[in-house]
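## Example pair
The file below holds two records. Each record gives the amino-acid sequence first, followed by its structure token line.
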Amino acid sequence: MSDPLARKMADIEDGNRQGATQQESAELRDLKKRNRQLEQENEILRRAAAYFARDINPK
């Protein structure tokens, strides 16, 4: 008898069972990583803009 996990994964890959394929899982993982990077970059830019705005418009 074959490994139940391998059988389940094969059924998902073949489209016989609901779930994310390995390719879809990898793509989702990569997109989540890219999203985290963009959020970090956005925060840096937000802070830089606030810093420079403070210098331009002193109170």
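Second record, same layout:
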Amino acid sequence: MTSKNVTLKIDSKVYDEYRKFCKEEGIIVSKQIEKFIKEELKNNKKQVL
């Protein structure tokens, strides 16, 4: 699977807090966003690649 760079506009406080959380938990932020998108597609019965 290929990756794609994207630009998102997210509230800076929310992003900074989530980034800190991910760092503490050893989680990669981009992978968490990808998981969220896949789950949203699944919940809305869209095909997940």
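Notes on the second record: Helices lie at 12-25, 29-43. Residues 12-43 form one domain.
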